[in-house]
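Predict structure. Chain length: 296.
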Amino acid sequence: MQNCKRCLFVLIVAAFLFVSSIHSQKESLLIGPGDLLHVQVFDTPELDQHARVTDAGNLPLIIGGDVYVAGLTPEQAAHAVENELLKGKLLLHPKVAIGVEEYATQKVSVVGEVKAPGAYAINTPRSVLDVLTLAGGLTDFANRKVLIERRDTKQKIPYFVSNEADVALDSAVQLNPGDSVIVPKAGIVYVLGDVARPGGYTMTNNDAQITVLQLVARAGGTNHSAVPSHAKLIRKSGNAYTEEPLPLSAMQKGTRADLPLLADDIIYVPFSYMRNFGLQASGVAASVGSAAVYKF
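Prediction complete.
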């Protein structure tokens, strides 16, 4: 009799430690619709079940009805089931363990300006930098302001892929299976007219911004025959273009402050007082389509 009690005690302790070890695991992947779960209720084997989470995010129990588990870790879901069993007075002291046997979505999608867009298999959380590496990295025309969408909550999380290694690593977001990463195209600004290398320049520097003087410098500066004092800033507004004088000569001399540019802005530097001096904004904008585009 004493041996039987001792064996029973050992079994109870072993089972308790088993359940506790499952609960104490570091669980960071969240349960989502379509995931296949294994539900175990200690000392009640008839309630052991394998069930998929419904599209509504519920886990249908053998008894006790549905329990909402989407967005929870397995440990949190186990507590939710325990509370439901207690609430329904189905068990006095329920001990539940839940494991994910199969995640419905084990891929993360990467679209946009990466070298190899597509869906990549991951079964554990991965850094956004790891996932971008799987997709071949950013293209030369990628905007460093990427957007992450969570599978379950549809929450949108911005992330900036900094050129500074420490900043990029320290701020990296963890991605879960089913999440998506969208890498948009970087903005382009144009400098046309009498400069060394007229064309479009992508805003892919570390700040994803550029000023008038920085853009002119990227284009090799103004030529000797240019008239920077009569430069123009042409800005797109809806389907039309607005034009305003740009004191480029004064900026170059340091008597006027430099100005930040917006995506699609056009700087036009006249060739001479006589040539193209009266060119309208629409005429300058029409030449943008044939302009060469350079990366920074």
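Summary: The longest helix spans residues 2-24.
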